[in-house]
């Protein structure tokens, strides 16, 4: 029996007449489900995004106690050492973060690797991005760098995240991951084409956790002592090299072991073969860069490395396995809002949405006092002193004042005080009309996907076409035609080969009109 949805449920792309109106839980109609409300096109986003907060807060609570995403994971302890330089320049030129400036210091780290969509006991051979989350316990407090193995993502606005994951997760009726659901979402979200091109190639199945890259994915800022900021992308480059699997190789491994990557990491550390990564950054001046065909805050795009090279900053070594999987790996909790002085947020709308969602998820999943757990607490040199009290599972109080009666600030009778401010604080001028915006720089939605296709090795390209052809044959015709239309606009050979592999009429696909409300993309080869 075919896994396709019934034919009578299929409608043309632009037929909305019989579809109910999307609303909030309060019954309010949602007029824009694609964009956070922000100050101008580039942001920042604002806290009063009620629809997004309601949507993401509910999404964070959809599963208990397992993580909704990144449920299957493995972790290890180690250390980070800074080189004291960013490229040939002193690191202090760009940032006052001590963890990136001070040489000869081994900063403790805990790293959790993971798959994204599968459940806690799902196979580690799944075609899926891999989470790459690093908790650096610096002398100035924790810094969490929460990213993936690939340098881009599927979407660029956080309000779409619950919908994306719902489309990629199992069908709520059949409880099966259905390709047509994935491509139904992607076909309406062209910014995802770049990530799809990566994930459906061999890069979508890393051979193990040791032989894969890591990336912060989002754009952050480095801030120096003068209060000057630069846009920055963070990357981990494995000293072991990068190795990926074909679908056939993955199937062979999965037939005998669903946890091969966890075993590989554990065994390597136990035998003293400690995995190591070089920490690199890409740096760009802190402005909107109109000379680029993409917004540097758009996490579906890569910064071209020939223009913004990877600059070495330090190295990370993993040299100790957890003593207990649950207490450490499973209860480890990361958040993109956990930054140290000298590292700051950009207006990246995915980063701003993640910063609310991640910590909210941890409070729900582990509890309001998850930061009191040893795996998550900062090192003793940066011990927490707060006026926060009580809550489920409290087992110590974070106070540090001489007068324990004072759990508020300010006070003239003792208690905690504010830290001294830096000589020059980073300030950002924000001006614009408050509204909901989508980026106007969309040419690279297609061009970067086409560039990636053309730079794959022949065997990687063959694997990509084979995987996409198999998927398209499981999709309703309207979705498969639209996907071929997208691929053809990325690269003519890309679209033609997918159409041939799936038995799709290329001319029929090319004849489709652009998506409603979107201009036809320029072809990357022009």
From TrEMBL:
* CC annotations in GO: cytoplasm
The GO annotation for biological process reads:
hydrogen peroxide catabolic process; response to hydrogen peroxide
Residues of the active site are: 70, 148
- Positions of region (Disordered): 1-42
* Amino acids binding heme: 358
Keywords of the record: Heme, Hydrogen peroxide, Iron, Metal-binding, Oxidoreductase, Peroxidase
EC number assigned by the record: 1.11.1.6
- Please list the cofactors this protein needs: heme
Q: Name one GO molecular function term.
A: catalase activity
PANTHER family for this protein: CATALASE, CATALASE-2
What name does the UniProt record give this protein?
Answer: Catalase
């Amino acid at each position: 029996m075919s896994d396709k949805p019934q034919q009578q449920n299929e409608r043309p792309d632009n037929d909305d007449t019989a579809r109910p109106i999307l609303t909030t839980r309060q019954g309010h109609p949602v007029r824009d489900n694609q964009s956070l409300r922000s100050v101008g096109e580039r942001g920042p986003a604002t806290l009063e995004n009620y629809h997004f907060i309601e949507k993401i807060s509910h999404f964070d609570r959809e599963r208990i106690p397992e993580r909704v995403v990144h449920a299957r994971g493995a972790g290890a302890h180690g250390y980070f050492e800074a080189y004291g330089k960013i490229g040939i320049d002193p690191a202090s030129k760009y940032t006052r973060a001590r963890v990136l400036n001070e040489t000869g210091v081994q900063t403790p780290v805990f790293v959790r690797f993971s798959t994204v969509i599968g459940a806690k006991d799902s196979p580690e051979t799944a075609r899926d991005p891999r989470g790459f989350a690093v908790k650096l316990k610096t002398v100035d407090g924790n810094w969490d760098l929460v990213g993936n193995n690939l340098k881009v993502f599927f979407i660029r606005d956080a309000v779409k995240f619950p919908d994306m994951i719902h489309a990629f997760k199992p069908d709520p009726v059949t409880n099966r991951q259905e390709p047509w659901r994935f491509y139904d979402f992607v076909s309406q979200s062209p910014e995802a084409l770049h990530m799809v091109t990566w994930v459906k190639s061999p890069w979508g199945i890393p051979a193990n956790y040791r032989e894969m890259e890591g990336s912060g994915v989002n754009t952050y800022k480095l801030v120096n002592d003068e209060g000057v900021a630069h846009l920055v992308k963070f990357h981990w480059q494995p000293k072991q090299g990068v190795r990926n699997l074909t679908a056939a190789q993955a199937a062979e491994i999965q037939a005998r072991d669903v946890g091969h990557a966890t075993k590989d990491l554990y065994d390597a550390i136990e035998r003293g073969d400690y995995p190591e990564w070089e920490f690199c950054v890409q740096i760009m001046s802190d402005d909107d860069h109109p000379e680029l065909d993409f917004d540097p805050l758009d996490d579906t795009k890569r910064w071209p490395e020939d223009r913004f090279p990877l600059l070495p900053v330090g190295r990370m070594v993993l040299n100790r396995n957890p003593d207990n999987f649950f207490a450490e790996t499973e209860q480890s909790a990361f958040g993109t809002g956990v930054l140290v002085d000298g590292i700051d947020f950009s207006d990246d709308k995915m980063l701003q949405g993640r910063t609310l969602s991640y910590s909210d998820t941890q409070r729900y999943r582990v509890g309001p006092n998850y930061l009191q757990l040893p795996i998550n607490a900062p090192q003793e040199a940066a011990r927490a002193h707060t006026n926060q009290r009580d809550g489920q599972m409290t087992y110590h109080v974070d106070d540090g004042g001489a007068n324990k009666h004072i759990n508020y600030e300010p006070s003239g009778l003792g208690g905690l005080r504010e830290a001294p401010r830096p000589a020059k604080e980073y300030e950002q001028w924000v001006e614009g009309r408050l509204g909901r915006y989508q980026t106007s720089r969309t040419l690279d939605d297609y061009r970067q996907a086409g560039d990636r296709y053309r730079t794959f090795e022949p065997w990687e390209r063959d694997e990509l076409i084979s995987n996409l052809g198999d998927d398209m044959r499981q999709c309703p015709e309207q979705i498969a035609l639209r996907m071929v239309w997208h691929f053809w606009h990325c690269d003519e050979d890309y679209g033609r080969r997918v159409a041939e592999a799936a038995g799709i009429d290329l001319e029929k696909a090319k004849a489709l009109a652009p998506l409603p409300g979107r201009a036809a993309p320029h072809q990357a080869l022009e």
